[in-house]
Design goal:
Blueprint: E1 12-17, H1 20-23, H2 27-38, E2 49-52, E3 55-60, H3 65-78, H4 89-96, H5 100-108, E4 117-121, E5 128-132, H6 136-144, H7 147-197, H8 200-205
Antiparallel strand pairs: 1-3, 2-3, 4-5
Length: 210
Amino acid sequence: MAKNKKNDTPALVETWALPPAATLGSSVRAKGILLEIRARLPSPLRKSLDISGTVFTLTMPESARSEFRHASAVIAKSLQGVESLPVIPREIEDILTISTTERRRWLQDGRLPSAGTRTVKLRGRARQITFHVFEPRMVEDLLDRGAVEEWREEDTAAAMENRRRAAYKAKLTRSLKSDNKAAAASQELTEEASAQLRGWDEFGRDGLLR
């Protein structure tokens, strides 16, 4: 009789649900939190933690009970205060549904206040990158009051005003050039007429007009 196949399904499983205040409705934010917590685990155990929706699941074989307990404790501790983890650029773009250009512009003009910077080393590379991070409660407030739509309306109005001013300036420049050309032409005619009449004084002194 053939032997029954060994059941390879992991025997040790534990789950944790992320609160809405942590993800702010963003799957990108949820994945970012996963990567943050994975980084706190020993390298061999990181892939044992995964996410589905907003639920973390740690799965390990029965033979790794000691490692499982250690990883479970690290994850549980990491999830304490997870709502306060800084929001990184790709997360805030997903949460607020904004483009990279908008994020950079609003960060530069102060409408999107930075909570500081963070420097990370790119995997497999010597180069490091530094980027701004954002306070999650500030991001939540912007989301709740629809600030992004207001900013876009302000930017549209400002762009229209800038175009109007640029058009007026271009028109004024053309007008000044035209006036300068007319003045130069008039000056040339005056100088030419003066040159033509320059000999009349001598002509009069010689008595040729008597």
